[in-house]
Amino acid sequence: MQINRVAVVGAGTMGSSITVAFIAKGIPVLLKDIDQEQIDKGLANIDRLLKSRVTKGMAQKEADAQRALVQTTTDYSHFCDVDFVVEGVAENIEIKKAVFESLDEYCGVDAIFGSNTSSLSITQIGSFTRRPDKVVGMHFFNPAHLMKLVEVIPGLETSKETVATAIALGQSLGKLAVRVEECASFLVNRLLGRYMNEALWCLMEGACDIEGIDKAACDIAMPIGPLALRDMNGADIGLAVAKFNFQEYGERFAPCPILEKMVEKNQLGQKTMGGFYAYDKETRKRAGANPQMAETLKAVRNGKGASEKSVEFKPERLFLPMINEAFLCLQERICAPEDLDPALCAGLGMRVGPLAMATQMGLDKTLEMLEQHFQIYGERFRPAPLLKRYVWGKRTTIS
Fold first, then answer.
1. What does the pLDDT average to over 289-307?
2. DSSP of 346-388, one letter per residue?
3. CATH assignment of 316-392?
4. Could you tell me the pTM of the whole model?
5. Is 373 annotated in the active site?
6. Residue 306 pLDDT > 80
7. What whole-number distance in Å separates Cα of residue 204 and Cα of residue 257?
8. Which of 35, 219, 320, 348 is in the most buried spot, having the most CB atoms within 10 Å?
């Protein structure tokens, strides 16, 4: 299907960034939000992003041409000639229900609806319309105008043609468009959640300190450490995601108590100028580990101090749950094996993906470390059956 005009519903940070991704490729966008105030905020962010590109060398004439491709509206009456809609509203199923019911009413019968949800069911979202075959997940990564990954997620009723159109549209934006089967948090955020949560358990157990954990992660694979990243996204958001994943996947995703206590104490990260790190109120830059975290850690440890669990901390521990979850995803056929590492690298900026990491360590050694940690820490490290089979079969690479 030829896509000539798209609409983006939601002019917030993500919606405006997605809009910039489209107009950069010459695709006109109809940007919608609930009122003019929200529209104006979205346009201001688009102007800021374009100005940044001009500063970095893009011609002002080109920026003006891209900006002219954006039209705005506060209602759905102009959606009749839109080919593809990307929904980017709040991660709330009732809000999305209202949006998709309206889209179904106002859009042409051939229009495709893509949801930028990071975790909610595409099948459920599709059920809010009379065209579930034309509803697909199209999960961009923040900031969408820069990040190279888009996860394309079909629901149970999504047609092959819809999936192919969404993948082709993502590729036309210069993205790595990866098909991901429907599951809670999809692929990248599902694996990210395991790694982020393990960093919290390491901190709570006293295995390593805040700056040491972040340095260990960066030394191995990451552009930013897990605790600094949690401060960027907010402990409140992290807690909500952790609880959702725990509800969907069970004990191996059990949330570390640190986040609950941080939310209770309003230590949310950058947004409150204090989380795992303290922040300079004038520059908003990180200013070392937050001394107030000592009291938070004392509270969640119930005065017992660091854990008596005796495995020496090694940086690989942070990634073992992610590696294990990667094998579970392969086992469930969530994505093609050749897509998994590229998706993680494009979506998170990893220098090496979890499957390559396991190969470098040795699949037998990876299994050995998981089994060792499983004996001490339990379900978070229960080895994936597929990994066991690879080792039993004496395989050294993943295919």
1. 84
2. HHH--SS-HHHHHHHH-HHHHHHHHHHHHHHH-GGGPPPHHHH
3. 1.10.1040.50
4. 0.94
5. no
6. no
7. 8
8. 320
